[in-house]
Prior knowledge:
The structure is a single chain. The chain contains 3 helices and 7 strands, in the order ααβββββββα. The protein is α+β, with helices and mostly antiparallel strands. The protein has 2 domains: 64 residues, SH3 Domains (SH3 type barrels); 100 residues. It has a 5-stranded antiparallel beta sheet with strand order 6-5-4-1-7, with no helix packed on it. Strands 2-3 form a two-stranded antiparallel sheet. The radius of gyration is 67 Å and the shape is rod-shaped. The N terminus is likely disordered.
Amino acid sequence: MIFQDLTPKFLVVVLICLMSGDLFAAERYVKPSTEVPLRRGQGTEYKIDAVISDGTKVYLLQEDGDWAQIQLENGKEGWILSRYLSDEKPLREQVTELEQTKADLEVQLIQVDTHLAGLVEVNSQTEESLVICMDENEKVNADYQRLEEDTADVVLTKKNLLASEKQLNDLSMRFAALELENKGLKNNTSLIWFLAGSGVLLLGLLIGIIAGKRSKKRYGSLL
Length: 223
């Protein structure tokens, strides 16, 4: 009933694990010694299938008392005394790994130094760019202030110009009025002179007429 609920993939995985016990085998290393025999069973009476040198990596399959069943990297299995196994790597491998780690760290240090030098250069360029930007900002502010001053001058000039234009228009209107008044005065003066001349002429005629009449009277009285 339980196996019916399991998926086919899970059953395949379980089957593989059961067939290959070394999938979950822990890594162990043979401790330094002259020779470690690999026997077919748990005891010195079993036949030796191989001799394992110290530092050899093996896979622990199971332990039973003083004996441990192991598997070599070539797949061969057998039993050795548990005291020959250790979970620590042999010193030569540790030294090799430490040397490799040191070499990797040296490479990383060189990369970090290179990256740091690049950052310093970028920082220097950034500072130069910042100084340039600050100078340009000061120039822009100065130009803006001058523009404000010029704008104020322009506004004042425009205001004065408008006032001058208004004054000029007022003067033009006054000049036109004066011209009209002058023309009127000229016309009145001409009329006065014309009337005066006419009056003098009439007065002369009148005097002439009166003088003629008096002369006739005198001449008549003499006759």
